[in-house]
Amino acid sequence: MKEWTGKSLFFKVFACFLAVMVLFSLVWTIALSLFKQTMIRERERESQAALFHASERFDGHLERIESFLFELSENPDLVGFDRQLSTRPADEIDYLPARGVIRSLQSYVYQPQNALLAVIVHFRSASLALSHKGSADARLLFDRLYASPDYSFDDWRSRLSGGRNFELLPAGTFVVDGRTRTALPVVFRQPASNYQMIALLDMEKIDEETVGLAEPGEWIVMARDGTELYRSGSLTAAAPPRMETGQGIARRAGNHYIYKKNAAGLTYVFVVPSSWMTKGAGSLSRLLLLILAGALAIGLAAAYAVSERIRKPVKNLLATVLSLQPAPPPGGSFKEFGVIHEKVNDLLGEKARISEQLRSRDSALKSYGYLNRLKNIPGDALEWRELPARDPGFIVALFTVRFGSPGAAELPEEARGLAVRRLLARLRDHVAGRFPSAHTFQIESDRVVTVFAGGEREAVVSHLRALKEPLDREAHVRSVTIAIGDRFEHPSEFGPAYEQVQKLSLQAPLSEETQIVDRPAAAPVFGLSPKQDRALSAHLQDGNADGACRLLDGHVDRMARGGAGVGTYAELARLLLAKIRTLEPSPSEDADDKRLEAFGEAFARCRTAEQFKEVCREAVRYSAERVRGGREEADPVAGLVMNILETRYSQDLSLGYLADLLNMSSAYLSVYIKEKTGANFSEHLNSIRVRKAQELLVSTDKNINDISAEVGYSNFTSFNRMFKKQTGMTPGEYRKRQIAQIHRIG
């Protein structure tokens, strides 16, 4: 049964498919909407173009009518006849000019392209009117021949007093020759004339032949003041909304209103139903929606099927992992699941084999310290894996090799490796006869370890002491220190056991012969006393090589007589090199670092106290040369700064204060001090303060907090941190060690 939960794989895969389908539907809907909008805009452009051409044709037709009426107004026959009507009695009027006017009207009206129902010349006097059909009484002509419910004889007579030249009147219905026609009156009057000319435009013919706007829709002509002059079409749209600009599109009440205004102020409006704008889009939209629905249904079914096909093999894999039991490969067409299932079965089989091995023996791999030390063992020396896990206890012996001497050339790495491997082979041969379960392997480049599984410690010590004579035969090449630890009961204690023999090896004195250390000795204090430390620092700072050498020679002799171990010699070497490093550097700091590293390597190769003293002398002489060379290039500004720091270290000194005192910028002074002395302002100040604190800690019984404030530290935490950084111990530890050393020397 499927678990329809938010955390199930089936639900998540199915939800991913649904999300993709929803996204697809959204994109589809947006695309459909954009398509519909594009279709509407395209049809709007088509309607605008149609209205533009229709208005151009209608404007041209009006211009021709107006031109004809203007020419007619200047016809000599019409002008003469009008003058007679105005000046002569009715019985003296010559009607012959009227016949010429009628012929002109006939020649223009009977032209089909002019689309005219009639052109009427209506005279104010004599109530006479002329048309292309002849002359007649004006009332008779307007009420009978061109009768209109919209325009009566009285309406036309009232317009004779109008002042405008051309005027378009709203379209009306006229009965002409027994037929009801729609006509748009165009009226023309000359100023101070006795007549008006009326052209009746046949709007049905103009719609059909001149304008030519197709259904559906309405074509509306509006005057400058917004009066509707003409409307054609099948719609019954309301009055068009007002459009401030000359052209544009308005949408209201289900219609699109397309505007075009000409130079004379006429506004043409093409009203198109919105349904026509989207005609075809609706059917296409429904078709596309049906396609989308079908695609979604297919996608939903496919999503369910794929999710189910993924869920089943994953469920089988999960059951296999949870049960930790190999299972047959899952069915289905996904090759990847078969590969994963095969690898899982392989891993489970490997796990079972490893578990069986771990159950059969308590592996020494459980010791983190053991692993940490064994990570650099050469690949052919991994015999520690054969340690009997259930043997009752073990003993560790560490063999430390020291090669050459300071004056001799250093052995190549290949030669040192060969010597260690020869030692390794000799140790295995020596140990195997008496302790067959012991295992000897190289743990570092200069160290070999033998683990004695079982056996008594006294027997191990006695057996290893027998190695001294054969090992001493090669003392000219290397010396060996053998450190033998206590018995430990469990392989997981290899880490502590190894640390113990490391400490024991540091207790061995410097010697070219093989040294065997099997018991921890009382740790004598061989460090320099505070007075000796200050004297050594002073000699080094003054470049007094002889004084420093005498002090170090005497101290090394005391160490040799007291049986100091190699660890004590190494500590003295580190102290000396640290003091030399803090002195003023030579112009080439990189060269100094390399030289000091060389001295460190020389100290490590020392196998006798005399060799150690010789390296000390070389280092001191090198230091003196550096100091003298620096003084030859002494700088007065740097000297002034150092003098201020030495005498006023307890004050609240700052780089800004010294810069103001020397009339320099802080940034420049900082770079200057670093360049001339090799250390920056803060390093010099902290070094002096710590040195003064060391003197006070040993020579007085003042509280450490008081000493911190006396040497210039307002914050004890800062003092404690800086003291430990420079000396390697806290102020309290330093005081205890120095006092203990003073008592021992005394």
From TrEMBL:
Residues 639-737 form the HTH araC/xylS-type domain. GO terms for molecular function: DNA-binding transcription factor activity; sequence-specific DNA binding. Pfam families: HTH_18. Keywords: DNA-binding, Membrane, Transcription, Transcription regulation, Transmembrane, Transmembrane helix. The chain crosses the membrane at residues 12-35, 287-306. InterPro entries: Homeodomain-like_sf, HTH_AraC, HTH_AraC-typ_CS, Tscrpt_reg_AraC-type_HTH. This is Helix-turn-helix domain-containing protein. It comes from Cohnella xylanilytica.
